[in-house]
Amino acid sequence: MMFYIILGIVGVLVLYVIAVYNGLIKARMQTQESWSQIDVQLKRRNDLIPNLIETVKGYSQYEGKTLEKVTELRSRVAGAKTPGEAMKASDALTRQVASIFAVAENYPDLKANANFLKLQEELTNTENKISYSRQLYNTTTANYNVKLEIFPTNLIAGIFGFKPKEFLEVPESEKSVPQVKFDF
């Protein structure tokens, strides 16, 4: 009879160790998965930023090139020596101005500007997702680390070599307000 009692106690202890071990594995995996979410959002942000910058550059170039072309054509019209040169420059100027009106008419906010606003919104959403993912990571890390420190889970964690995870902290240099600057 005593044999069965000892066997029962050992069986319960083994089941307890298995349950605690599986709980630690689950907590560690949740921490890794929450880090993976941060990684995904960082990748998304890194993909969006060049598109945002190129859209801004493209919009500025569209504006700059169009105005440059209009100014150049106006100068050609004014500096034409013959009526043929003047008409040729005038026709080109008319086409250039018509293309500006067509774009403005079809896209009141200009398509490039709408793209910029869309990319800006997506970038803001991505930044919010990164922030949420960081919070989730720190929460799952805290849960995991607590399991590693409480008794008797800490004994089992020590036996199986579980190590605490580090929290994500914002470096002092990143706590200041960022300045966005486009160099064209």
From TrEMBL:
Keywords: Membrane, Transmembrane, Transmembrane helix
SUPFAM superfamilies listed in its UniProt record: LemA-like (SSF140478)
GO cellular component terms given for this protein: membrane
Membrane topology reported for the UniProt record: Single-pass membrane protein
Compartment list: Membrane
InterPro entries xrefs: LemA-like_dom_sf, MamQ_LemA
Parts of the chain that traverse the membrane: 6-25
Major localization listed first in the record, in broad terms: membrane
Family of this protein: Belongs to the LemA family.
Protein name: LemA family protein
Organism: Streptococcus zalophi
Classification of source organism: Bacteria, Bacillati, Bacillota, Bacilli, Lactobacillales
